[in-house]
Amino acid sequence: MITTLSIKNYALIEKLSIDFSKGFSIITGETGAGKSIILGALGLVLGKRADLTSLKNKEEKCIIEAHFEISKYNLSPFFESNELDYEDDTIVRREILPSGKSRAFINDSPVNLQVLQELSLFLIDIHSQQQTRELSDENVQFDIIDAIADNSENIQQYQSLLKSYKADKTKLNALIKKQGESLKEQEYHTFLLNELVEGNLKSGEQEVLEDEFEKLNNVEIIKESLDKSLAVANEEQIGVLYNLKEIKVSLQKIASFSTDYNLLLERISSVAIEFDDISDELSRCSDKLVNDPVQLDFIGQKLQLIYNLQKKHQVSTIDELLEIQTELENSVFELGNLEAEIEKLTTAIQEKAELLNSQATTIHDKRLEAIPVLSQKLIVILDTLGMPNVRFDIQVKQSETYYSNGKDEIQFLFSANKGTDFGILKKVASGGEMSRIMLAVKAILAQYSKLPTLIFDEIDTGVSGEIAIKMGEIMKEMSKTMQIFAITHLPQIAAKGNAHFKVSKSTVGEDTQSELKLLTVEERIIEIAQMLSGAVVSDSALNHAKALLN
């Protein structure tokens, strides 16, 4: 529950610090006195967006701080999961800087607004007139039934599965689209791949073929040159080899006379050996050289194929062509795998759909069990609120659509009087009836919820007299298990509170300020008397106020 609220430099509030107690607290004040400001400050603490218009003094920062006693609400896991220090007396602080920036802290640890909003769901429910109107919203109606049905865990499991199901559906649609696009390209890619495969390309092949082509294409001149070289090398008495041998014999005669001559002998001997080897190689090359027009034509065609493929694919090497071939193989292979992947994903989606249907049926069945409980409890409470003939016909039917909370569609039908047909709640219920129904709903939910604090903002709209007294009694009964605040204009409800706070507005010079004050017993009598009779308090109003308080 909230124990302390401190506000500095917010709207019409310069500085305020107020303590709250458990039980039933009343907040009253004239229209425009600042009750909405208090709720606005609380809203900031609970994670609502802020702007510079919130600052009373635009040159100073706004600070709103609230203390919450949370020891009984098992919130340690939330703090652990968000890496926050847990304290039984948790302090939430919100700061709005003159620059417009906003900061939030939980137990002095900075947090983003999402974390603050998530924590607020465990701390306070502020019920406004807008929420009363939302009672006709289907999601709100499901929330009410699911709270009684204890469907929270089932819905969480369903939502987790639904998220996975939708993700798979999205992936499947993308694969089907990709398959459709790929099929258009498959024929062309297959043609290109077959063309490369039929080419039987090998890395380094082009250089070898080009070298062989040059040889075969110039076989006559090569043969002529080789044979001439052999003749020059091996001609008797004038050939190179003969002359090298003659030089070697001459140097052998003088080699012993000087190391210089011996070195020359060694060098000419090496030259002779090397040239003899060259002569043998020339002979082998000449013997291997064959004029083969068929082979020449074959190589020419293969080279032309290579050149054509390189031009088509805009590359210059066989290695690059082989890379393209690999990419095309992968593309065609991937297309072949798409069908299998689509089939596998389709099966997974069908299995998840079966699980979703099963989970949705469980949610549906529990809702059906909860509806009579909700209807009966509403009838009992509303009977005490002056609606003795009220009836509800809450219909929940399964559809084929997966909604965020199951497959159900709901009709919340209502009849306030005997002899009248059922009608859709938002169409047939008056404002006063909607207020009473909403209070009854909140009273019922309080039995199933562990929420520490509930704030009613003028839930008494459209009611008065004895009904207002009954509404006050219901809120007081609720306050036995949770902290209840009621912002009200009705003295009958105000008199039921354990504590009474008054919001007032005053003018100091050129400045207007709002303040919140805890009333004493005497001040409370006067406040309720003024609510009964206006600014001028009569004796009868005072006596009536005392009677209400008693």
Automatic annotation (TrEMBL):
UniProt xrefs under Gene3D superfamilies: P-loop containing nucleotide triphosphate hydrolases
Record keywords: ATP-binding, Coiled coil, DNA damage, DNA repair, Nucleotide-binding
One Pfam family, short name: SMC_N
Keyword DNA repair among UniProt keywords: yes
GO cellular component: bacterial nucleoid
Residue ranges that the Swiss-Prot or TrEMBL entry lists as coiled coil: 148-175, 328-355
Domain RecF/RecN/SMC N-terminal: 2-506
One function term, GO molecular function aspect: ATP binding
Example of a GO biological process term: DNA recombination
Family: Belongs to the RecN family.
Function description: May be involved in recombinational repair of damaged DNA.
Protein's recorded name: DNA repair protein RecN
